[in-house]
Specification:
Layout: E1 8-11, E2 14-20, H1 22-40, E3 46-51, H2 55-65, E4 70-80, E5 83-92, E6 102-110, H3 114-124, E7 130-138, E8 151-155, E9 161-162, E10 178-181
Helix pairs in contact: 1-2
The structure holds xanthosine-5'-monophosphate and magnesium ion.
Length: about 180
């Protein structure tokens, strides 16, 4: 594919190259939504989006799933600066009563898996009927955990990406496409 100017975006001091188009993103979201609808149509599940990154994916996914459901958000952080601390802080907790409920956790990207691992344990204590993990992106090269991510949009190499909710120091979340850090 030939590069055009709009295939490159700038965020702060870094340049990023178009990596997954809006069209491809929306196609995968519809596929995941259909799979979730088939599983949970009768269950009145609770989607829990992990802020900030998953705000856009969560909004698209609940519409693509298009079944009766509830939607909640939590805010977790395992990052301090640019590296994982290994300890996950809950910045916004959940007040929803999840006992006996089918819970669908929605993440923008699964990197080491540390965030989801700890959140899954926190959720288990609330005795839900089931926990389903959905990550739009996943970096298998750096994933350090054993649990399964039930639905993955795209497996990608260990390169930094922005767009579709993902940011570089706060920039780039609004982009409809996903862009990969350009190395030149
Ligand atoms: P863990 O290691 O706990 O990390 O699975 C998941 C969180 O790390 C952030 N992350 C990224 N954010 N572009 C981003 O904008 C990336 O390429 C990237 N890789 C990891 C993200 O906050 C995710 O929730
Ligand atoms: Mg995140």
């Amino acid at each position: 594919m030939q590069n055009t100017m709009s295939d490159i975006v700038q965020a702060h001091d870094l340049s990023f190259q178009l990596y997954i188009s809006e069209e491809d993103i929306q196609r995968r979201v519809r596929e995941i939504g259909q799979a979730l609808a088939a599983k949970f149509r009768e269950d009145y599940p609770v989607f829990i989006g992990v802020l900030n990154g998953a705000f856009m994916f969560t909004a698209d996914l609940v519409r693509a799933t298009n079944i009766q459901c509830e939607v909640a958000f939590t805010r977790l952080s395992s990052y301090q600066g640019t590296s994982s601390t290994g300890h996950v802080n809950t910045l916004i907790g959940l007040d929803a009563d999840l006992k006996g409920r089918h819970v669908i956790v929605v993440e923008d990207i699964v990197d080491t898996g540390g965030t989801l691992h700890q959140f899954k344990q926190t959720l288990s204590e609330k005795e839900p009927a089931s926990i389903t993990l959905v990550g739009f992106l996943m970096k298998p090269e750096v994933f350090k955990n054993r649990f399964k991510v039930d639905h993955v949009g795209y497996e990608i190499p260990n390169k930094f990406v922005i767009g579709y909710g993902l940011d570089y120091n706060g920039a780039g979340r609004q982009l409809s496409n996903i862009y990969q850090l350009k190395e030149d």
